[in-house]
Automatic annotation (TrEMBL):
Name of the featured protein: Glutathione-independent formaldehyde dehydrogenase
SUPFAM superfamilies: NAD(P)-binding Rossmann-fold domains
Cross-referenced InterPro entries: NAD(P)-bd_dom_sf
Length: 96
């Protein structure tokens, strides 16, 4: 992770990291990331981590998908338009 960071630069990870029991890497199975601390000490980088800021992009992304500007995502998103009065049943179906 720190191999490509300039001295005084920033290394960031964004996303959700958790245990991955099917990984071939022992650390990943436990949800650990390998950090080269000697490189960190020498380069003095800023290290940050956090969840991805999905709220910043969610509305624009959903509009693009619903307006057909990203047709390759539609099958993956499993989008179905329903009438408002059908919403209670749709929520029940979703819970099953």
């Amino acid at each position: 992770m720190l191999k490509y960071v300039r001295a005084g630069g920033t290394a960031s990870t964004v996303g959700v990291y958790c245990m991955n029991p099917i990984s071939k890497e022992p650390d990943a199975k436990l949800g650990h990331m390998d950090v080269e601390w000697p490189n960190a000490w020498i380069k003095s980088p800023r290290i940050s981590a956090g969840q991805s800021p999905t709220a910043n992009y969610n509305r624009a992304l959903m509009r693009a998908i619903l307006n057909g500007r990203m047709p390759y995502l539609t099958p993956m998103m499993n989008i179905k338009f329903i009438k408002l009065e059908d919403a209670p049943q749709a929520y029940k179906d979703f819970d099953e």
